[in-house]
Amino acid sequence: MTAMVLLVALFQALLMSMSIGPVRAPVAATPPDSSAPPTTTVKLVFIHHSTGGYWLADVGENDLAGGLGRALSNTNYFVSATNYGWGPSGVGDRTDIPNWPEWFTGADRGAIMQAVYDEVDQNIGDYGNWGRRSVIPAGENTIIVFKSCFPNSDMYGNPDDAPLATPDDSLTVANAKAVYNAILMYFATRPDKLFIVITAPPLAQGDYPPDSVSAAHRAANARAFNDWLMNNWLATYPFKNVAVFDYYNVMTSNGGNPNATDVGWVNGNHHRWLASTGAVQHQKTVNNNYAKYPSGDSHPNTVGQQKATTEFVPLLNVFYHRWKATAVTLNRFVYLPVAQHDSDPGMTRSPIHALSRPQ
After folding, report:
1. pLDDT at 196 over 90
2. In which domain, by residue range, is 310 found?
3. 17 lies in a domain?
């Protein structure tokens, strides 16, 4: 019996022990990956700040626009977004890595996430307009895309640090791993949704604040954490309702200067669908941990943002079809309390923590 089957069996036993309906395990023989757009319009919401807002903006709106919103619309997604000041208690202001437990596992997660699922506005702010489909489909948002911004690449600790047992407020490798381990427990309770993690973009080398810990070490920590998200975080997760797009990696190589793209190149740092091989490629041939498309600061310029759009949209289609092909059904959903802070008596550790957690 494979490790995957054992893990699914354990997860089913845990849910059954809590009087939750049966879980249908992922089917062993899944169809080949496909980068084709969805056949019906799918509602998507993007939780972001400035870099995400510029990424969504139509090309030509400003020097940082990436055209993502229109590209997604043209691929049969209805795209909405959050922004600064959005949501219950202004939670839209708080999208750094240590803030994600507030969204997904905190005491107000029910109200916050229902607002996310119900959001249909663009909340463009000052980042540039983007076109989208004219008709709002019925129902909740199906896909939840979320990212932190480039200050989160100023990461402390050491590249191989193990996750903390419980998340705290620090921006370290150990805590970042703990945060994502904790919120994964929420994602497991919502197999009816597809969650897409966008890794935080890199900082420009000159934008690291002076510190006794070198910029090179902190940048290497960011690289190591994002590699962990790509290679370790979901290794034993039994479902396909969570995926990662390595925006960080995509932004660490260019075509020779910040205004030249390496999109479509054989070499370079990429996370993309290769139609020639019918496979996803996550590649790093350029040894660099700093932003390669700076715009005067660490916000990626329009060239870098358009590279990210070109690589992300087909991958999103792949992730969507994988999820649809292996959808898990619960008789009803349960929102499991997950430990966030030991000092919070309202948050208790759930039995679901018995699931294998990547180190």
Report:
1. yes
2. 39-354
3. no
